[in-house]
Backbone:
DNA sequence: ATGGTTTTTACTGCGTC
DNA sequence: GACGCGGTAAAAACCAT
């Protein structure tokens, strides 16, 4: 199912290498990839491996020669260089820790207190701010992925609630926003009874499946979310409609799953597989034949699994019909 | 890490259109 | 001959320990 598309093929290596530093269009000394100029930071970086070739060609110091105040306004660009390592690119002001004034004199105790209060508030605003940004980005991602998967609004709602909680409980440090956002959505979809498989989630996320699974487990544990194993029946409507089956077929698929559940036939088996098999079996029973490979396509389950499961399902069903 | 279980992959044979 | 289906063996993935 999740076929790994290999992007690193030989073609990259052969061509466009060994060009001497003639002008601006160079190739990366490390990997041979194309170089791109990042105008914001004045860096020349390799688009492939991220190696920084030239740094800071722009002078960020002040333009000293200004002869009147108007010119000074124009030319003055004093300030620290920006950085992407801080959420605000380092543009915000911080209050120093020393209790000294601008001339290095010590402050009176009264003023010291005042400064302390200011520091506290400054810190509060700064972190609140960064959380806001964080949240904004995450919510955007959740929205994007949710619509890509055709998940309803209430799922997005719960997903954002989960994310907010994760943020409040300081679960983010050490984890990517994307990863946690994706996990939140995955969890929300399952809670809402409209589950999507990890594979489906992974196709719309910018994060690898492994990481999603890992962060998901972590988030669930830390927030002690209660998520029961997905109910096979919850996959049925989607599969059935993807295959254009009738309501009758859908109904039969459900009943097959119900009787299978009574016999405890489903523990340990993948819910998706059960659902796929039930849908296939139902299509046979209602003479709306779909092929196994069609089902395996929409369900992302191998045909073999469908075969194995649907035999069991039919057996179980017959047993009930007899007894 | 390990072992047991489930799923997938790859291949083969059979019947039908 | 291609297609749908069934079965099998071995590899891979998954899960609890």
Residues:
């Amino acid at each position: 199912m999740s076929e790994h598309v290999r992007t690193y093929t030989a073609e990259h290596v052969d061509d466009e290498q060994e060009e001497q530093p003639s002008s601006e269009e160079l190739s990366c000394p490390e990997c041979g990839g194309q170089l791109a100029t990042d105008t914001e930071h004045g860096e020349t970086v390799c688009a492939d491996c991220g190696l920084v070739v030239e740094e800071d060609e722009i002078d960020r110091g002040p333009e000293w020669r200004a002869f009147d105040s108007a010119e000074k306004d124009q030319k003055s660009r004093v300030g620290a260089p920006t950085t992407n390592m801080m959420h605000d690119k380092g543009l915000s002001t911080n209050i120093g820790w020393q209790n000294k004034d601008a001339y290095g004199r010590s402050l009176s105790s009264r003023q010291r207190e005042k400064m302390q209060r200011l520091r506290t508030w400054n810190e509060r605003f700064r972190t609140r701010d960064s959380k806001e940004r964080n949240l904004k980005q995450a919510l955007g991602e959740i929205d994007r992925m949710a619509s890509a998967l055709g998940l309803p609004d209430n799922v997005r709602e719960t997903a954002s609630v989960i994310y907010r909680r994760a943020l409040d409980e300081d679960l983010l440090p050490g984890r990517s926003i994307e990863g946690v956002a994706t996990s939140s959505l995955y969890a929300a979809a399952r809670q809402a009874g409209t589950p999507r498989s990890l594979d489906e989630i992974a196709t719309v996320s910018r994060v690898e499946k492994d990481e999603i699974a890992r962060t998901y487990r972590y988030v669930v544990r830390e927030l002690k979310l209660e998520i029961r194993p997905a109910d096979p029946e919850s996959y049925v409507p989607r599969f059935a409609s993807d295959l254009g089956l009738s309501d009758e077929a859908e109904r039969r698929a459900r009943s097959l799953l119900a009787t299978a559940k009574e016999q405890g036939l489903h523990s340990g088996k993948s819910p998706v597989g059960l659902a796929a098999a039930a849908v296939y079996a139902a299509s046979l029973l209602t003479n709306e034949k779909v092929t196994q490979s069609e089902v395996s396509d929409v369900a992302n389950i191998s045909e073999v699994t469908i075969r194995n499961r649907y035999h069991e399902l039919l057996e179980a069903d017959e047993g009930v019909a007899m007894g």
In short: Residues 5 and 25 of chain A are 29 Å apart (CA to CA). Residues 109-148 of chain A form the longest helix (40 residues).
